[in-house]
Design a protein that fits this description.
Layout lengths: L2 H12 L11 H14 L1 H15 L9 H20 L9 H23 L1 H4 L1 H6 L6 H27 L8 H29 L3 H14 L7 H10 L6 H6 L3 H13 L12 H26 L3 H4 L1
Helix pairs in contact: 2-14, 3-8, 4-5, 5-8, 5-9, 5-10, 5-13, 9-13, 9-14, 13-14
């Protein structure tokens, strides 16, 4: 063995043993994981930057592509639903209405979809070095937030252009809805990214689930249409409506409408929307905690499975 190899082996032997699995204790383990992630915050920042650069690598337009998909979806729904199906007759400022929902939905779907495959996409790093594996789904959250900021800026500018800029306490609704979206999406990204290592079908189930979630949320149709439909079958205010409102994405989209869709003032909204958002936030924080602990328990065998 060469002197260099001997010195390297001695240096490695001197390093303290690090547990790849969860730290003992539910609360203590959580604090340990948070400290570990905080200690690797520079790495997390580098992964976010790498995620953004790789997404638009060798692209001439770069971040412009961040807007292409939601704007294309907006154009399709505005023409097909707004013009052809005349949805804009019952929904004033239909373009703003749709873009509110698409802005929230794009952030949620990007975090969940890309977060699910984040561990597998970084298999090389997982197998070679020790680091808190949570940084990979969290890097997806970071890069998605950058894209969300660009889309949100477009939405705010659009409201100003049409003379419907939101003011006053509306912004508190937006912050509450954003917090609900972020904690639920991050929780799902952590849980699904860990499960996807062991069962690769998860990423395909996520695609189907996101499709269902999209149409189960009032993104391209109004809450008034939901209540009208439920009322026609005698279930308005019943169990089906309560089930529909259990979807956190539904509450987030309605919260964004309350903030940015000024032309919709006076339109029906669910009773106690802010209280529902508050409950959803508490549930989301608890879910985020439980999903992180599940992730920590499953991560010990990531390298072997990959």
């Amino acid at each position: 063995m060469t002197d260099h190899a001997t010195a390297r082996a001695a240096a490695l032997e001197a390093q303290p043993m690090r547990l790849a699995g969860p730290r003992p204790g539910f609360l203590r383990g959580t604090l340990g994981s948070v400290r570990d992630i905080a200690a690797h915050r520079e790495l997390l920042g580098s992964l976010v930057r790498r995620e953004l650069k790789s997404r638009y690598k060798d692209s001439t337009l770069g971040f412009v592509w961040t807007l292409v998909r939601p704007l294309a979806m907006l154009l399709i729904y505005w023409v097909v639903l707004g013009k052809f199906l005349e949805a804009e007759r019952s929904i004033p400022s239909f373009a703003i209405f749709v873009y509110c929902g698409l802005t929230a939905w794009t952030l949620f779907s990007e975090i969940v979809n890309a977060g699910t495959s984040s561990i597998i996409a970084n298999a090389g790093l997982v197998k070679k070095v020790y680091l808190p594996r949570e940084v990979f789904p969290l890097s997806v959250v970071g890069s998605s937030l950058v894209n969300f900021a660009v889309q949100l800026a477009i939405l705010v500018v659009a409201t100003a252009v049409v003379g419907q800029f939101p003011t006053g306490p509306r912004w508190w609704t937006a912050l509450l809805a954003f917090a609900v979206l972020l904690v639920h999406a991050t929780a799902l990204a952590l849980l699904l990214s860990a499960l996807n290592v062991y069962l690769r079908d998860v990423q395909y189930l996520v695609d189907v689930g996101l499709l269902i979630f999209f149409w189960a949320s009032p993104i391209v149709y109004s809450w008034q249409l939901v209540t009208t439909g439920l009322d026609s079958i005698g279930l308005s205010g019943g169990w089906l409506e309560r089930l529909y409102l259990l979807n956190p994405v539904t509450l987030v989209v309605l919260g964004f409408h309350e903030t940015f869709w000024v032309a919709g003032d006076g339109k029906p909204v669910p009773d106690g929307l802010h209280e529902r958002l508050g409950v959803a936030l508490v549930v989301g924080v608890v879910a985020l905690w439980l999903c992180q602990r599940t992730f920590a328990r499953l991560q010990s065998n990531f390298a072997q499975e990959l």
